[in-house]
Amino acid sequence: MCGEKTQFKKGHIPWKKGRFKEKKYKDCEVCFSPFAKSIRLSLEQWKNAKYCNRVCLGIAFSKSRMGVSRGKHSFEARKRMSLSSIGKVISPATRRKISMTLISKNSKGEKNPNWKGGITPENHKIRTSPEYVSWRKKVFARDCYSCQACARVGGKLHADHELPFALYPDLRFEVLNGRTLCAPCHRKIPTNNKAWKLPEFITAQYV
User: Fold this and answer.
1) How do residues 76-118 score in pLDDT, each as one tens digit?
2) Which stretches does DSSP call E strand in the chain?
């Protein structure tokens, strides 16, 4: 083998045979631009090819499904409805109704496949509820987004309960019981350091 001449032998098929033939073209049925046959496509697949890329394929699929899965409105009607809603502001009450409708449609609580027996803490549920988020925004808006201790405007603000959250459940969503504090001032409040759990603190402040 060593020293043997390596040359083309009669009947040998080169590796690139058929790869550099004249390319075949088709016109895309969506954008009407010509596209060439890919070497990865078989002759049968090329025969059924209609679109130049996945974008045109998606457009064609959407048009084919129009009126089937999207209700009775045509594409032009949906476009007009979309343009007519530009600039409109949805009220908080309407947003709440939409949110509740979407929640009711989905599996919630024990119906959810990820249900683990209700292990979410009650404190977390309350602080992430829409009522608590609304109370927090109202407190910030009333105080003009400024700290009530150092008068700092903006930054990282906290909505603090003047009467502790844990001791007065009836006042958790009362705007008059809230005040805006920046993060440094909030850390100085005794209730933030859980001092309210001490009996002497409760006796001195709230008894």
Assistant:
1) 887 888 888 888 888 888 888 888 777 665 666 777 767 787 7
2) 25-27, 34-36, 157-161, 178-182
- Tokens representing 165? 């959250």
Distance between CA atoms of residues 126 and 192, nearest Å: 18
Give, in order, the Cα–Cα distances in Å from 201 to each of 92, 129, 163.
40, 29, 12
Domains of the chain: which residue ranges? 18-67, 124-206
Question: Which single residue is written with the structure tokens 């033939």?
Answer: 21
C-alpha to C-alpha distance for 186 and 173, rounded to whole angstroms = 19
pLDDT tens digits, 121-156: 888 888 888 889 999 999 999 999 998 888 888 888
- Report yes or no on whether pTM surpasses 0.85: no
For 169, which DSSP code? G
What phi, psi does 203 have (nearest 5°)? -65, -40
Q: Which fold has domain 124-206?
A: His-Me finger endonuclease fold (3.40.1800)
